[in-house]
Amino acid sequence: MTAAVMEAELLQPLLAEHGRQELAPRFFGAAATLLAEPWSLATGGDLRFPEVEGERGPQDEEVDGYLDQFRAFAAIDPALGTARN
């Protein structure tokens, strides 16, 4: 849902700038940039399992390590376990 809101908020300045002219390529190009990191986070979690096929980069190991520690601490720290971004 957050990604949908981000995309909706992206539309306003794009429409204000040039209206509907060439909206689709401008929107999808900007949306790809906007959603690259959330998409990587959402799909990258699967890559921590060796049986999952996919390209793994150096950042995947770093993010996996961070998320492993986060999950471990969130399990014992009520404030962290209920934190919202």
How does this structure look, described?
The protein has one domain. The chain is built from 4 helices and no strands. With 85 residues, the protein is mainly alpha-helical. The two termini are 14 Å apart.
Task: Give a brief outline of the structure.
This protein has one domain (2-81). Helix content is 73%, strand content 0%.
**What proportion of the residues is helical, as a percent range?**
over 70%
Number of domains: 1
Q: How many DSSP helices?
A: 4
Pairing-aware structural class of the strands and helices?
mainly alpha
C-alpha end-to-end distance: 14 Å
Given as residue ranges, the uncertain stretches (5+ residues, pLDDT < 50) are none
Q: What's the total number of strands?
A: 0
Q: Give the C-alpha Rg.
A: 17 Å
Average pLDDT works out at 87
Q: Main beta sheet, described?
A: none
**Beta-strand share of residues:** under 5%
* Shape designation: elongated
* Order of helix and strand elements from N to C terminus: HHHH
